[in-house]
Amino acid sequence: MHKPIKYVEKAVTIGAKGVWAVFDRMNRIKPNPSPKPKWSDKPLLKSYEKTKPPLGWPRSTDSLCPKCVPEIRQQILDGKLPYEVLLNEKVGEIKATIVEKDGKVMMVKQCPKHGLFEDVMSIDTEFSRHLEEVFPGRDIRAHNDEKLHNHGSSTVKYGRGSVLTIDLTNRCNMMCDPCFMDANQVGFVHELTWEEIKKMLDNAITIKPRRQMSVQFSGGEPTLSPYFLDAGRYARKVGYNSVQAATNGIEFAKSFEFAQQAADAGMRYAYLQFDGIGNAANAHRKVGNLFDVKLKAIDNLHRAGVEIVPVVTIVNGINNEQVGRIIQFALDNPKKIGFLSFQPVSFTGRDEAITDERRVAQRYTLSHLAHDVKGQTGLGEPARDWFPISFMSTFSDWADLMHVNDANNNWGQLTCGCHPNCGTGMAVMIDKETKEAVPVTAFLHGDQLAKDIAKVNDAARGKFLTGFGMALCLMKNYDPFKSPTHFKLTDLLSKFDKNYNVTGRNYGKVGPERTIDDVMKRRQDRWNFLFIAGMWFQDLFNYDFRRTEQCIIRRWEECEDGLDRAFAAAARWNRHERRAARSR
User: Fold this and answer.
1) In sequence order, which residues have a C-beta less than 8 Å from that of residue 415 and are 6 or more positions away?
2) Averaged pLDDT, 70-81
3) pLDDT at 234 over 70
4) b/e map 352-367, b = 16+ CB within 10 Å
5) Is pLDDT at 520 greater than 50 in this prediction?
6) Confidence of residue 565 (pLDDT cuts 50, 70, 90)
7) Is 60 exceeded by the pLDDT of residue 198?
8) Burial label, 189 (beta-carbon count in 10 A; 0-12, 13-18, 19+)
């Protein structure tokens, strides 16, 4: 038996469907042209104006040879080839085909020199087909970026991205395997100067569309950089409202005062390395009490006002059985954990020379993740409750339209416009008091909601009608009988208001001017919108240039010519060492 309010809400949803039928029909009459916001030289895109890469299978794409690329890289480091070949020639590039084979989606490619390569992209064709079908399309084409987006075939062409990653140092206080960056083992220290850090942050805000991004300071271990706190302050000063650190948490576990200093400097999120529950599940990191360290870091960071995002590198056969336990940890701690980021292993850095046998055994895809979540927790249906990360762009488009004429609207909404093969996620609504958890798309019809909102966006009406249209969309697609026991329709509307600042109600500021009081005010919400995300970074075995063209995670260590500064520095260091060796 449902609570009486649920029946009232059911009547409201039925009424909303009737009102929507009239609203939608009227809203289609003479839609307005898309406005051009201050933060872009191009107008907002209507849903039917968005482009998409080739999807489905079989399809062809451009990829890289896993053997040619390391050979070419070494030739550059040895001084036998100029690094400009990466810009001006298609070195190492080969064609690839994405096909269905034995119930799986596979990438198959043939190098004239090194032969055949195959790798699995998905173990569930229905899941992958669903992700591609609901992909809303690419963002506004990047512009005012000619001097910065200059990376040859890997040049980003669409949107602004969602995460700006700046590697402050390659030093680290651990020696992990896997390590995407090969920290501590490249034979030299590469650490950014203060002027270089400022230049990168200043350059980044010149690209349009100028959307908000999460500025992620990474490494190595970014807290070891002498400029870690100053970098956070400067990012906040120039206007970014989300500063995060990709960290192992050791320095934050050692000192609550340091966590406070980081929060005061502008750090909003800790992207915390997190491999599993218990010290045994973290033993491969070679630190005996590492899980205890994580718990202490979480406690210190939370008390300081920093939000924690456990980041889990998943290796098939190594720690994939931990998926359910990690999610249960988040469900048991809804006041501290609002986001989980699972990252299927990418065979780069120390693992680039992996054997074919080990690669096949340890490969883990986004489809593996969706099925492990279902199998280990019972949460979610892979082809119903999981959506591409880029699915949120329809909602960002709506918020852009809502705020386009605001006086201080100098930044667009953060949006995730990545390829549907790059990232996926499932949202779970958790009652912080009872810890009841329900997938959001079990009570909110996600597919239809996005289609309805796209219609509101395409009409490009004023703020009132755009907001009213969104309210109708939410009400007509809401099923009160499938939502959490104490969850109400008003809670759903408040969640959207809190996230997109529709009514102007003060839920606690999130911009650069926020204080610890704002953080605590936002935490008073009874409902935790837990997002379980999977972000699958490419390696040489599954590289797809169509994904790179719309990449949302920009790792920035660029020279004026657009090439990676660390790569050029490594080449110079390598040549210096060879000359020194000859003189000894």
Assistant:
1) 139, 159, 160, 162, 211, 392, 393, 396, 397
2) 92
3) yes
4) bebeeeebeebbbbbb
5) yes
6) very low
7) yes
8) exposed
The predicted pLDDT at position 562 comes to 41
Longest dimension (CA), the chain: 86
d(CA 421, CA 503): 35
Is residue 300 within 8 A of residue 262, CB to CB? The reply is no
Tokens of 568: 């050029």
Show the tokens assigned to 71: 């050979």
Assess contact for 515 and 476: CB atoms under 8 A.
Answer: no
Through-space distance between the first and last CA atoms of the chain, rounded to whole angstroms: 85
Question: How far is residue 484 CA from its own chain's centroid?
Answer: 27
Q: What is the pLDDT of residue 349?
A: 77
Taking CA atoms, 579 is separated from 73, 189, 323, 531, 558, in Å, by 19, 19, 49, 52, 26
Weakest-pLDDT range from 31-40, 121-130, 154-163? 154-163
The string of DSSP codes covering 187-230 is SS--B--HHHHHHHHHHHTTSBS-B--EEEEESS-GGGSTTHHH
Q: What are phi and psi of 154, to 5 degrees?
A: -90, 10
Q: Which H or E element spans position 94? A: strand 93-101
| Band (177; pLDDT cuts 50, 70, 90) | low
Handedness of CA 382, 399, 245, 194 (dihedral sign): positive
Residue type, 334: P
Helix, coil or strand: residue 81: coil
Instruction: Assign 180 a pLDDT band (cuts: 50, 70, 90).
Output: low
Helix (H, G, I), strand (E, B) or coil at 61: strand
- Give the strand pairing for 423-431 and 387-388: antiparallel
Q: Which two tokens stand for residue 67?
A: 């053997």
Q: CA 516, CA 522: separation in Å to the nearest integer?
A: 10
pTM for this entry: 0.90
Task: Determine the pLDDT at residue 146.
Answer: 75
Three-state SS at 181: coil
| Residue 90 parent element (H or E) | none
Place of tokens 């609207």: 409
Q: Tell me how far CA of residue 482 lies from CA of 20, 382, 458, in angstroms.
A: 22, 18, 30
Whether 564 shows a pLDDT value over 60: the answer reads no
Non-local CB neighbours of 313 within 8 Å, separated by 6+ positions:
178, 273, 275, 319, 343, 344, 345
Band of residue 575 on the pLDDT scale cut at 50, 70, 90: very low
Residue 392 has what DSSP assignment?
A: G
CA geometry: angle at 567 spanning 180 and 365, to 5°?
25
CB burial readout 558-568, b (16+ within 10 A) else e: beeebbbbbbe
Q: In what order do the strands lie in the sheet with 115-122?
A: 59-64, 93-101, 104-111, 115-122
